[in-house]
From TrEMBL:
Keyword Signal tagged: no
InterPro entries hit by this protein: 4pyrrol_Mease, 4pyrrol_Methylase_sf, 4pyrrole_Mease_sub1, 4pyrrole_Mease_sub2, rRNA_ssu_MeTfrase_I, RsmI_HTH
Annotated function: Catalyzes the 2'-O-methylation of the ribose of cytidine 1402 (C1402) in 16S rRNA.
Location of this chain's protein in the cell: Cytoplasm
The protein's Enzyme Commission number: 2.1.1.198
Pfam families given in the database record: RsmI_C, TP_methylase
This protein's name: Ribosomal RNA small subunit methyltransferase I
Amino acid sequence: MSAGDGRAVLAPGLYFVATPLGNARDITLRALDILRDADVLAAEDTRTLRHLMEIHGIPLGGRRIVAYHDHNGPEARPRLLAFLREGRSVAYASEAGTPLVADPGFVLARAAIAEGLPVTTAPGPSAVVAALTIAGLPSDRFTFAGFPPNAAGPRRRFLAELAEAPGTLVLYESPKRVAATLAAAVEVLGGSRPAALCREITKKFEETRRGTLESLAEGAVADPPRGEIVLCIGEGTNEASEQELADALKEALASKPLKEAAREVADRFGVSRRDLYQMGLGFNSN
């Protein structure tokens, strides 16, 4: 069936559409169909959605994109709910990734569900899952905790509450605050925890820094990361005996200077680089 303007008829309901993290081709065919056929389009950032549709050749066809974000939710939400009550199809797209994951769509979803209105999803990219895929940390269990607080005290309390969280801990962070968050994580969670800092996933300057929290914290100061950041933190250290660490360090020292060898072994076993450096100095004194 056709809506009469080239669009197919889409069943009434609220459609949460996952959009690419960066690479515009990381969108599903179904998501493109929904954006083409929905009666109403809504987005966290209207410019981003408009640009994505232009890239994929999807015309607006006389439709306007309704802005829906944290600042205008109380005003825009009743309008979108009214469209749903009228039996229209409404597609909501986050700025990047999956709606409702660190995204203002949650309240809209709750409101629609409370009224018994149809709610479904067109799943796709998610920065949480993408980061877990490349972090090199266990992904069978993980805890996603969103953005840490900005202020130092609340940030430390936030991390302390997550210290015993099962599996890999996943956080979002801005480049301006990531150094402070890593420093707090070293203080609260322990610098020897294995971790990965994933930035600009799927984009031109994608980078994953792996190591201990201590090494990542030092790296964030020496070479501040830029762009969108996902921080993955392992549950704890990889258990290794002192003899195993000493043997691994001696092997690394056969071809590398002490500082580099200590970093390599620390990253491998998830232990303190400083402790391994001191161990290496002890080798030279014996």
